[in-house]
Design brief:
It comes from Nesterenkonia aerolata. Keywords: Aminotransferase, Pyridoxal phosphate, Transferase. Its cofactor is pyridoxal 5'-phosphate. The protein has helices at 3-6, 40-47, 62-72, 89-100, 117-131, 146-158, 173-181, 200-206, 229-241, 283-286, 301-311, 320-331, 336-357, 383-394, 428-447; strands at residues 14-15, 51-52, 57-58, 76-77, 141-145, 164-169, 185-190, 211-217, 245-249, 277-282, 294-299, 361-362, 370-374, 396-397, 399-400, 419-423. By secondary structure, it is an alpha/beta fold. Strands 1-7-6-8-9-10-11-5 form an 8-stranded mixed β-sheet, with helices on both faces. Strands 12-13-16-15 form a 4-stranded antiparallel β-sheet. A two-stranded antiparallel sheet has the order 2-3. Strand 8, helix 9 and strand 9 (245-249) form a beta-alpha-beta unit. Helix 4 runs antiparallel to helix 12 (320-331), helix 5 packs parallel to helix 12 and helix 13 runs parallel beside helix 15 (428-447). The structure holds pyridoxal-5'-phosphate (PLP). The site of pyridoxal-5'-phosphate has 14 residues, from helix 6.
């Protein structure tokens, strides 16, 4: 790829289409190893920014690399999005009892591939109670191994090889990997600060005859934007008009703060959405049980059946005891959601205040686990170098947002190269200690940098 192809405009869509020539250079690392585009593993790695062009090897994901660096440097980890406290004790006990006393629960053998009936019924009942969405648990609900498998199966089901898949960027990393595995091209439409609202006109402008699928994520990781009813209505209208499917990732739907501009609106509540859209949820985020990996896909029977066609040959099924315990949590959360959201919102406020005091420009996250902060008021070293300095010299780990964009948006002036994601789903003491380190050590770390 020529250098001119690397320089993308600072606004407008970018794409992960693999170049035609056999060797390509990553924006930051000159290529030494030929890239074989016929191999699916290289497509997945390039699509998710985990291909090391210098060695020709796959690196762990940005989340795992950040956690490893945090451990190496004894840094406080505000990088990876997992909580440092457990989910509800009674759900842990329900899962444990289901394992050790198989007579009381679903047992420890293969559950039905589409999910335990008890969980599918609980998901349908929950969606009906909360949002008024009517779902047939036997045909319109599919349990998956985390939202990750739901995303993989949906993209593989709906994105035909050679087509284009649109998403707002920054985006969750698996979207890029799976779109590449599907043989499709991920096209990113930037979300711009300071409030990171989706630009629906830009989305429409990015639609071509080759567009097969739009990947939405609301509430959004990493910006915390909750898409408004009007934004979702326009996107559904676009998708129907252009005969494009929608996958809407709603894993943070139970983590919306009371000062969000609008409450969260699931895609399937938008009139006409059921014709084109599937929705994805995750117990991991809702109940602070990220290691359990229980997710789901909901939507019209025909679309869910198409996703099942892929899903049943990925994992086939996932652990029955976890599914059983999640079913009880969905039936009655015993006040956990409200308590959890209040704790997260207080964590967000602590983090916001600390980042602002340190001279960064944090955004107002309406939901989820993360704040993104613009570093340009402090430095022009870019997000990757800033995060390296932060973990090594300041003792705080965070994620460079450019790693969550389509092929590392290459223009160093671009806003998306100057944003850093900090997680606030951590103990308040951890956030406070991290903000103390920022206050005490960041100015010196920036001063010591060679001009
Ligand atoms: C936007 C988004 N989608 C999906 C996932 C994966 O969810 P799960 O752990 O249920 O596979 C995550 C996890 O961080 C996420 O942030």
């Amino acid at each position: 790829m020529s250098s001119s192809q690397h320089s993308r405009p600072s606004s407008g869509p970018s794409s992960n289409l693999p170049p035609d020539d056999a060797t390509v250079a990553a924006p930051s690392a000159p290529s030494r190893v030929p890239l074989d585009h016929r191999q699916l593993w290289t497509k997945a790695a390039v699509g998710a920014n985990t291909y090391d062009f210098a060695s020709g090897r796959v690196t762990p994901t940005i989340y795992e690399r950040t956690t490893a660096a945090a451990l190496r440097h004894e840094a406080l980890n505000l990088g990876q999005g997992f909580t440092d406290h457990e989910g509800p004790q009674w759900m842990l006990e329900t899962a444990a009892a289901a394992i050790t006393d198989p007579q009381q629960g679903p047992g420890n053998q293969y559950p039905p591939g589409p999910g335990l009936p008890a969980l599918r019924e609980a998901i349908a009942a929950d969606q009906q109670r909360r949002w008024g969405i009517e779902l047939d648990p036997t045909s319109e609900v599919l349990v998956t191994t985390g939202a990750t498998e739901a995303i993989t199966a949906s993209i593989l089901a709906f994105a035909a090889p050679g087509t284009q898949v649109l998403t707002f960027e920054p985006h969750y990393d698996s979207y890029g990997a799976v779109t590449a595995i599907a043989g499709a091209e991920l096209v990113g439409v930037p979300l711009r600060g300071p409030d990171f609202r989706p630009d629906i006109d830009a989305l429409e402008a990015a639609i071509t005859e080759r567009t097969s699928l739009i990947l939405l994520n609301t509430p959004h990781n990493p910006t915390g934007t909750v898409f408004s009813t009007e934004e979702l209505r326009r996107i559904v209208e676009l998708a129907r008009r252009h005969d494009v499917k929608i996958m809407c990732d709603g894993v943070y739907e139970q983590l919306v703060f009371d000062d969000a501009a609008e409450p969260h609106r699931p895609i399937l509540t938008i009139p006409g959405a059921d014709e084109v859209a599937v929705a994805i949820g995750s117990a991991g985020k809702s109940f602070s049980l990220t290691g359990w990996k229980v997710g789901w896909v909901t939507g019209r029977a025909e679309l869910v059946n198409q996703v099942l066609g892929i899903k049943q040959f990925l994992s086939f099924c996932s652990g029955p005891a976890y599914q059983w315990a999640v079913a009880t949590g969905l039936a009655d959360d015993r006040g956990f959601y409200a308590e959890n959201v209040a704790g997260l919102q207080a964590g967000r406020d602590l983090l916001y205040a600390g980042l602002e005091a340190a001279g960064l420009r944090p955004n107002h996250a309406e939901a989820g686990y993360f704040i993104v902060a613009d570093i340009r008021g402090l430095t022009d070293i870019g997000d990757v170098e800033f995060c390296r300095m932060l973990v090594e010299e300041v003792g705080v780990a965070a994620i460079p947002v450019s790693s969550l964009t389509v092929q590392h948006r290459a223009n160093p002036q671009d806003e998306l190269q100057n944003l850093v994601r900090f997680a606030f789903c951590k103990r308040h003491e951890t956030i406070e200690a991290a903000m103390d380190r920022l206050a005490q050590r960041l100015p010196a770390a920036l001063d010591h940098r060679p001009a």
